[in-house]
Amino acid sequence: MFRFCELSLSQHPSYARVLASLRDKDHPSKLLDLGCCFGQDIRKLVHDAATPENLIACDLNRQFLDLSYDIFQDRATLKTPMLAADLFQPDGPLKEMEATVDIVHASLLLHLFSWDKQKEACKRIVK
Q1: What distance in Å separates the CA atoms of residue 32 and residue 98, rounded to the nearest whole number?
Q2: ∠ CA 22-126-40, rounded to 5°
Q3: Spatial distance between the Cα atoms of 100 and 32, rounded to a whole number of angstroms
Q4: Against a cut of 0.85, is the pTM above it?
Q5: pLDDT at 1
Q6: How far apart are CA 127 and CA 122, in angstroms?
């Protein structure tokens, strides 16, 4: 229930490499956090000096995103786009990001689906 408190991305062995690529002055990477819930991993990246504009938080539920601003009290200061979108909607808001995102974080997403839906989700993610 409180898995969002764990900051899963910063616990990953590749976190330092991800953070370095997001901080790169010449060619910064762009990261999409799919199924971000309250955007806690995005906020940790911002805290660790990743450029907020190179991060995108996305969740199906707009209420989670709106509530996250209340939880973290950063509605006026967080410069990261917070997008409500359905991964399975082919012409939805995520279509604009195809081939523009370098890193996708989806650790709180895929387990929600059946095996067939997971495969479909992964095909959409790598587009």
Answers
A1: 11
A2: 45
A3: 10
A4: yes
A5: 47
A6: 9
Q: Classify residue 99 as left (phi > 0), alpha (psi -120 to 50) or beta.
A: left
pLDDT (tens digit per residue) in 73-115: 999 999 999 999 999 998 989 988 888 999 999 987 888 889 9
Are 30 and 101 a contacting pair, CB within 8 Å?
yes
C-alpha dist (Å) from residue 109 to 21, 30, 79, 113: 23, 19, 23, 8
Annotate 21-50 with b (16+ C-beta within 10 A) or e (fewer): bbeeeeebbbbbbbbbbbbbbbbbbbeeeb
pLDDT at 109: 85
| Token representation of residue 62 | 């707009």
| Residue 59 CB-density burial (10 A; 0-12 exposed, 13-18 middle, 19+ buried) | buried
Q: What is the mean pLDDT of residues 28-48?
A: 95
Q: Are 55 and 46 in contact (CB under 8 A)?
A: yes
